[in-house]
Amino acid sequence: QVQLVESGGGSVQAGGSLELSCAASGSIFRFNAMGWYRQAPGKQRELVAITSGGSTNYADSVKGRFTISRDNADNTVYLQMNSLKPEDTAIYYCNAVVFRPSGPSLYWGRGTQVTVSS
Fold first, then answer.
1. Please, which residues have CB within 8 angstroms of residue 72's CB and are 6 or more apart in sequence?
2. Which of 8, 31, 48, 79 has the fewest CB atoms inside 10 Å of its own CB, making it the most exposed?
3. How far apart are CA 88 and CA 86, in angstroms?
4. What are phi and psi of 87, to 5 degrees?
5. pLDDT digits (tens, 9 = 90+) for 57-101
6. 55-58 and 76-81: which strand pairing?
7. Cβ-count burial of 72 within 10 angstroms (0-12 exposed, 13-18 middle, 19+ buried)?
8. CA atoms in the 13 A half-sphere facing the CB of 48
């Protein structure tokens, strides 16, 4: 059973930085994609950043401030968040995808809280 465990969340003032980490454990597959999503109170979960096959994509709201990276050897994905804004406050979820002949399998972490104060 694959488990994704996030760490690195916390509280920071606007303009500060945090780095999130997500480590996979259990039956380790070669994930085709890994990424980060977030959900703010009263809002839908949204994509923050994703990395797949060496390419990366970011939400427009975080471009130039956040950087996603991946350690394939450890099946770990990171999210470096700089110049944080109060609107970045949310629960951040790690996501991993395995493409199978029957369709994609999605895995989620439990989330880590990020709070940015003004």
1. none
2. 8
3. 5
4. -70, -5
5. 999 999 999 999 998 777 899 999 999 999 999 999 999 998 888
6. unpaired
7. exposed
8. 29
